[in-house]
Amino acid sequence: MIGAAFAAGLLLAGCGDKKEARAQADAKAAGFVPPSVTSRLDYGSSMERRFRALDRNGDDKIGKDELPARNAPRLQALDRNKDGEISAIEFSEGMLARFDAMDLNHDGTVTTEERQASRKR
Q: What is any Pfam family matched here (predicted)?
């Protein structure tokens, strides 16, 4: 009888470990982001589309009223001539400079690992 109770306890303990391991694996899977590689060309094209989306009045400039509130300070830093507007050239050159800063091995692509490392810096 004692042996059976001991064996049942081991089985239950084993189930708990499996359930815990399963819960940890599920949590890890839920937060999974597949690795990516972005080329400088693709990034530049993406940023061109972003500029066009932000330039709501189509004047090839992003004015203060067109800046998204949460990114405004970071985007205003792209205004090199400090005229209060971000031109298409200022935006493009600034965003490509950010890409180049993320491209840690200077191979023309940014991987997930490089992106994460640049965020930590």
A: EF-hand_5
